[in-house]
Amino acid sequence: MRIAMLVHNRIHFGTFQRAHSLARHLVRLGHELTICAGAAQCGRPPRYATLDGVTIVEPFDPLPIRFREGGLSPFDVLNRLHYLLRRPCDLIHCFDHRPSVSLPGLLLARLRKIPSVIDWADLWGFEGIASERSSLMGASLGAFDTVLETAVRRKADALTVISTALQRRAQGRFPAPVHLLPVGANSDLIKPISKAEARGRLGFPENASIAVHTGLAPYDAEFLAQSFLQLVKLQPGALLVTTGRRFPALDRAIFSAGLTSQFTHLGMLGRDALPQVFACADALLLPYTDRSVNRFRYPNKLGDYLAAGRPIVTNRTGDLGQLVAEERVGLLADDTPEAFASSIKQLFDDAALRDELGRRARLLAESKLDWGFLAAGLERFYLETIARVRR
């Protein structure tokens, strides 16, 4: 099959990671994959590259990053149509609903008479992401997303969804077949590393109690901050190491408490550097409280955490909480900083428990949550969709 995937994020950011993780394994299964991503730089000429056998296309786009990264650029819409209409394609997979993804995807499917599949990885409207926005512009964009994320999926030939909450929602609203496609693990790229070796390389004390958090989503940053303050009461020498976005709420809380010497932020790291950081952890933190935006999504970092073979501390929300409970790859805490800190402390104190949960996490990453396993299931769904549309 010749498959085109459209994402509005830049290379290595957001949903690009989800699409590319699937695409590189579909290439291994013998298919031709192209991903159209958002432009990384304003006004740069179009760029074409190959990443793990997948053709990556970055368009020319003179607009600010809010438009390029947000899937709102008309230049992106036109450039994608221009590129895709000149190349053969058997199926198009749109990752989310923003105009730079859904408009060229659905139009190409109609013109070429090929199937369109639309992925649903977040609830964007007022029951989801929009509920976290406070500005007038955020509310306006939320209204736009509320309408568009439903409208475009009514036009799709098939849907993929990241969570069972979105699966139920899709099955109740749209006639198209729905395929559950959860977060996967790149177990071939991220592998367990010796804790002592990793701490030595990064300069952390070998015998320290270290919790690690990575991520971009700000939804539970305040909860993470308060949990760390509670943790220090239980374990005065505890260290917190973070990568990814810097959260002002976390910085303020740590500075106010006088704990800056126990906090290290390593910035945005590539996938080649992340395993070293994960390996330092006695506990990998994934705060995920019971709020609307969390019930429908599924954090991408779960797969990286599992592949690293370290135990996870999270909350009971959604598919994430259910998976951690059923697969016994970490500890679940109630939605209070005290409970979250207590679960981290439990892992600090029990090396045997840490090892067992970490071993189970790695086994899960190598089996039914490996992106290769998930890509094989997606391949079957693609073939079924093509056969059904051609009837």
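^ that was protein a. below is b, sequence first then the tokens
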Amino acid sequence: MKSGGYTYMQLRGGTSGKDDVWVAAPEFAVTTGERVSVALDMPMEQFHSKTLNRDFPVLYFVSAVSREGETPARSRGPAAGAAAPISMMGSHQSAAAATPVERMPPPSGGLTVAEVWAQRKALAGKPVVVRGKIVKVNNGIMDRNWIHLQDGSGAASDRTNDLTITTAAEVTLGDIVTVSGVLAIGKDFGAGYAYDAILENAKVTGK
């Protein structure tokens, strides 16, 4: 099943069905009956998919899928038959907008995205307010929505132009919003996925 940018697959590891497992990978082409190998990176218990409106007792988010005879590896690309790394995660992973975001002033009492990056150590654990354009959205993962925000500050070369935010609010790609949340640094979700800076449990206004 394909939904929300992911391909959901039920894999059968044996003939009895006792070893069946559900996995979700960044969307790619696959057919029923095809033999694949996956690296079971991130188990999520009692996971509810909003886009599918379906509950999974256990769902694994996987960062690599390989065809029969290949070894799952994050270095493989789609041309080699493997899925790309999960886009909502990754260490300090930027979501570059299709076109550069025009520079926006920070909200009253708030900071620019570049200032958050520059001051992140001093801001760790403290509330932060930023305003910008939503350039990427991944909804319903780990019971929260993941968004990337840019305001025209910072540099794409060192990824200080982009800030990852988690929120319960639902937003639309291209929205101009003000978000307020607590900044975390060095946030590690396991399986090698960590953030140098992430704004968590943010409230969204100005949609």
